[in-house]
Write a structure and sequence with these properties.
This protein has helices at residues 2-28, 42-175, 181-195. The protein is mostly helical.
Length: 196
């Protein structure tokens, strides 16, 4: 920027050094007014204006415009780099999100698998306990039936004896018939068979 200002200042000084002697010459002729408005100096003024504009154009083209172009190119390059970085960050974020979603899905699948295995283990253990309990109850039932059968035989035998005595007493009192103990037992056994 400082070089641009210096080149413009040099161009201005060169133009002033050309125009100042012409202005001094016009003032020395004694004409009143400003020399820029003197129609006799218009062609030289236009010539020097064209020269200054051409010099200014070449100075601008050789120093200022390349710098402006470089600044614009650097800015475009920075914007492109920023866009590339943003695209790379976006891709990284999308990859991280995909990895997170995959990990989440894997964790959910593993949790379902663990839950299913636990439910199967609990069901197997419950079935095993049920089978064990059923077997124990069956054994207890058989033992109780055996105990009942064992306890039932002497009771039935004693009941048959008591029933035989009751039959003997009833026959003696009601019919006046004396029945032997063996006959009374046979009659009680036949009545039990019929009752089933």
């Amino acid at each position: 920027m400082a070089a641009l200002v210096r080149s413009i200042a040099k161009t201005g000084l060169a133009a002033a050094s050309v125009l100042v002697p012409g202005a001094a010459f016009a003032a020395s002729e004694g004409k009143g007014g400003m020399p820029q408005f003197d129609s006799a100096t218009f062609p030289s003024q236009l010539f020097w204006l064209a020269v200054i504009l051409v010099i200014f154009f070449f100075v601008m083209r050789s120093s200022a415009l390349p710098r402006i172009g470089e600044a614009l190119e650097a800015r475009r390059q920075k914007i492109d780099d920023d866009l590339d970085k943003a695209a790379a960050h976006r891709e990284e974020a999308e990859a991280a999100m995909a990895a997170y979603e995959k990990a989440l899905a894997d964790a959910a699948a593993e949790a379902h698998s663990i839950q299913r295995e636990a439910a199967q283990a609990i069901a197997a253990k419950a079935a095993e306990r049920r089978a064990s309990l059923s077997a124990r109850l069956a054994e207890d039932t058989k033992a109780a039936e055996a105990r009942i059968a064992a306890a039932k035989e002497p009771v039935i035998a004693s009941l048959q004896d008591v029933a035989a005595e009751v039959v003997q007493d009833a026959a003696a009192k009601l019919a006046g018939v004396k029945v032997s103990q063996a006959e009374a037992k046979a009659a009680v056994a036949a009545a039990l068979k019929e009752a089933g």
